[in-house]
Write a structure and sequence with these properties.
Layout (H helix, E strand, L loop, with lengths): L18 H7 L1 H27 L2 H16 E4 L2 E4 L5 H8 L3 H13 L3 E4 L2 E4 L2 H9 L5
Antiparallel strand pairs: 1-2, 2-4, 3-4
Length: 139
């Protein structure tokens, strides 16, 4: 697996064989890690359900809402997703094409729901994005 850090960070790694000893010696660390893994599994399950049951517009809306919730920074124009994200990144996150994401984001920008620029997205109208994410018909 690979990852790209959106911000400066510290990465820790240890051999799997050390895990039982670390969890025993540092119970708060173990509990926090188990909780984090559980949250990540829940997020993964949610994404699988989205990918298999939702229309593309719903998936893209959910992805933007999730990113705004997790990393959003309030600005005068809305909630800015606070790390560089491209339309291609959004397409890969939602199992669709760059063309489809570009079409949706352009439509939502014209409607005043978002503002997007080079590797930047700001959610201007979160309520309308929530409505789109819950819509069962093409909107």
């Amino acid at each position: 697996a690979s990852a790209i850090a959106a911000v400066d960070c510290v990465v820790l790694a240890w051999p799997n064989a050390l895990w039982p000893e670390l969890a025993r010696r540092f119970p708060v660390f173990g509990a926090t890690t188990y909780r984090t893994v559980g949250n990540r599994l829940q997020e993964t399950q949610t994404r699988v359900v989205e990918m298999s049951t939702e229309q593309v517009e719903q998936r893209v809306a959910h992805a933007l809402l999730r990113l705004a919730n997790q990393t959003g920074r309030k600005t005068e124009s809305g909630v800015e997703i606070d790390f560089p994200i491209s339309r291609q990144d959004i397409a890969e996150m939602t199992g669709t094409t760059l063309h489809t994401v570009s079409r949706l984001l352009s439509k939502w920008e014209e409607s005043g729901i978002i503002v997007s620029g080079r590797q930047k997205v700001t959610v201007k109208d979160a309520h309308r994005l929530v409505v789109l994410s819950e819509s069962r018909t093409k909107g």
